[in-house]
Design a protein that fits this description.
With 458 residues, the protein is of the alpha+beta class. The chain folds into 2 domains: 75-221, Ribosomal Protein S5, domain 2 (2-Layer Sandwich), CATH 3.30.230.10; 283-457, FomD-like (FomD barrel-like fold, Beta Barrel), CATH 2.40.380. The chain has 11 helices and 27 strands. Pfam families: DUF402. InterPro entries: DUF402, FomD-like_sf, Ntdp-like.
């Protein structure tokens, strides 16, 4: 709101928290949780979505943004590049590949399709459909569907009946289906009727344009969609903002994203009733981790291209708390053979990695041993980790520092970090923070090398 945005159709809880009245205006942008961990979906009208994403980046800073290409429900003319087991692999505008299921077309045919799931990362295929779709504020019309569908948020049966009657009066016999969007539950029926007429005209225009000979192109622009990954510092900033309007535990968003909802809700209930201080809630994570000593953990290394590397699981061996920071030491017994990148040393099954993870730290330290003999350390530069019950997650920032026996230090994969910056996968702040972290580790590498014999960092 401080950035000039209006919150519309807010729940009772949100209105009370923000001190605002109910605004039934149609939403131009929707922000919701993604199925991907620590990630928001921002979708809606292009200019409005760009403004919201810009505000999120400006306010939270430590985020990674992936834009959907082409936009959701964009209608395009595409070329069949090949047919694979009944699926057509399509060349879409912008060099993006798409996939159309149950396709009987031939190679080099041109098809008009609607994007139902954009491509967000390099190498990721968009999913498309032959049903043409156009979106308005209140409804979406789908040619070839014939169905009447409702947003899950339209729960009132009387309202559904009114909207169904309107759809039948406008669309019967047209072969066009309709999906009533959540905005329609508050709109006047005549406003929705006017929009249906307008979208029907747009469908006819799209149909006419699709029949014109031409190359791969966008026929109708759909909605902009962005995925916004929230690194741990961004979640802390959200905690600060939430704390201005509601009792908020330290680490609220991190702990919620890591599945500790009940623990957070209980702590905030106590906080709201002044039974504990906010500082006391800062002990939640250390409490959870201390109860997990001796238990197995999984490690999800998120990649800037959207992939996830699942490292060999490990057992939590130690937890240390110091001035609000929590440091955890995990023991991972490696299973596979190979070569340690950067170290140039053979990797063997049974080698041990003492992995040191610290909240708020921009590095994770991997310290490799074989039969008690030190092999070397790999200092991974990443966003500060999110730690939950049985899971550690972080975003790899590509560059790493290798520490060899004798204290020899080398920086590896700096070119990958620079390429991520050039291609706008990371913003300037994240790029500079990664470079600063590299310099800090180079200046004092042994501060990040863990020695299990002395049970302390050298």
């Amino acid at each position: 709101m401080s950035k000039g945005f209006r919150v519309v159709q807010a729940s009772d809880v949100i209105r009370e928290r923000l001190g605002i009245s109910f605004d039934k205006a149609p939403a131009e942008v929707t922000i919701k949780d993604s199925s991907e961990p620590s990630t928001l979906v921002v979708l809606g009208k292009r200019g409005a979505v760009e403004g919201v994403v810009e505000a999120l980046v400006s306010e939270l800073e430590d985020v990674v943004v992936w834009w959907g290409r082409p936009g959701l429900h964009t209608v395009v003319k595409a070329r069949v590049s090949r047919v694979d087991n009944g699926k057509c692999i399509l060349e879409l505008p912008g060099g993006v590949e798409g996939v159309l299921e149950a396709c009987d077309s031939r190679e080099n045919d041109f098809l008009v399709v609607t994007v139902v799931k954009p491509s967000f990362r390099k190498g990721e295929r968009a999913i498309v459909s032959r049903e043409l779709r156009v979106d308005g504020d209140y409804v979406s019309l789908i040619k070839g569907s014939g169905r009447i569908e409702f947003s899950e948020f339209i729960r009132d049966q009387a309202r559904r009946a009114e909207l169904s009657a309107l759809a039948v009066s406008k669309l019967m016999g047209s072969g066009v289906g309709v999906r009533f969007r959540s905005n329609s539950q508050y709109a006047e029926l005549h406003e929705i009727a006017v929009e249906i007429d307008s979208l029907l005209r747009r469908l006819r225009e799209i149909d006419a344009r699709s029949r014109i000979e031409g190359s791969i192109n966008v026929i109708h622009e759909g909605e902009s969609t962005a995925l916004v990954y929230l690194a741990s510092p961004a979640k802390m900033r959200l905690d600060e903002l939430r704390g201005r309007v509601a009792p908020t535990a330290v680490g609220h968003h991190q702990l919620k994203y890591m599945g500790l909802d009940e623990l957070v809700d209980f702590a905030e209930y106590l906080l709201a009733n002044r039974a504990i201080s906010r500082e006391a809630t800062g002990l939640l994570l250390s409490y959870v981790l201390n109860s997990c000593v001796g238990r197995g953990f999984v490690f999800n290394q998120r990649k800037l291209d959207g992939g996830v590397v699942k490292l060999t699981p490990g057992v939590l061996e130690e937890v240390h708390v110091d001035q609000g920071s929590v440091k955890a030491v995990f023991k991972r017994v490696l299973r596979s053979s190979g070569v340690y990148d950067g170290l140039g040393v053979e990797k063997k099954p049974g080698d041990v990695d003492y992995m040191v993870v610290e909240t708020g730290s921009w590095v994770i330290s991997h310290n490799y041993f074989r039969g008690g003999t030190y092999i070397g350390s790999y200092i991974n530069v990443n966003t500060p980790p999110d730690i939950g019950e049985g899971v550690v997650e972080y975003m790899d920032l590509e560059v790493d520092i290798v520490v060899k026996p004798g204290g020899i230090v080398e920086v590896v994969d700096l070119d990958k970090l620079e390429e991520a910056s050039r291609s706008k996968l990371i913003n300037e702040k994240l790029f500079n923070k990664a470079l600063q972290t590299v310099e800090s580790v180079k200046n004092n590498p042994m501060a990040h090398v863990y020695n299990p014999r002395s049970n302390q960092e050298k």
